[in-house]
Amino acid sequence: MSDTSIDFPAFFEHPAVEAGADGGAVELTGTVLCALELAAADFLGPQRADTPCPDRREAHRYRVIQQQGIVFIRIDEDPRFCGLTVPGLHSGAQYAVGSDGRILRRLRDGEPGSSLTPTDAGPVIPVPSSEVGRSFDPPDGSVPLPFLIGPGWDAGT
């Protein structure tokens, strides 16, 4: 179900047209609608009356790009829908769905295998060896750190 040869498009490279934003009509093909339903069901699971707000389908935003017979879908949590200000960590996913209705590739945020190229951190800045030490050593060696003072329980007692 995860064809890593499929690269996801840049979903945010161009502005999207929001359905219903200006009162205009939006037309979806049945293939796109089925792909959206499949991706939402796979990512968010079954929906019941007691499904927590952040896990509900309507609490998410969906971007769709169709290329070469594949429907690419980006799903992101919309925290404002639930009265929140910040989305949850790893709360999105990308899907590639074939015209036959099969998920060809799924990539949840935070999973390895992202097709994004890592950003270069820049030139290396060497740290003098006098400034390198063990993280549990007191800064000047004169005062032990609190977790090293006195008898304590260890995993063997």
Give the topology, please:
Blueprint: H1 30-44, E1 60-67, E2 70-77, E3 92-98, E4 103-108
Antiparallel strand pairs: 1-2, 2-3, 3-4
What does this entry look like structurally?
By secondary structure, this protein is mostly beta strands. 10% of the residues lie in helices and 18% in strands. It has one helix and four strands; from the N terminus they run H-E-E-E-E. The protein has one helix at residues 30-44; strands spanning 60-67, 70-77, 92-98, 103-108. Strands 1-2-3-4 form a four-stranded antiparallel β-sheet, with helices on one face. It starts with 29 loop residues before the first helix and ends in a 49-residue tail after the last strand.
Summarize the structure.
The protein has 157 residues and is mainly beta. It is 10% helix and 18% strand.
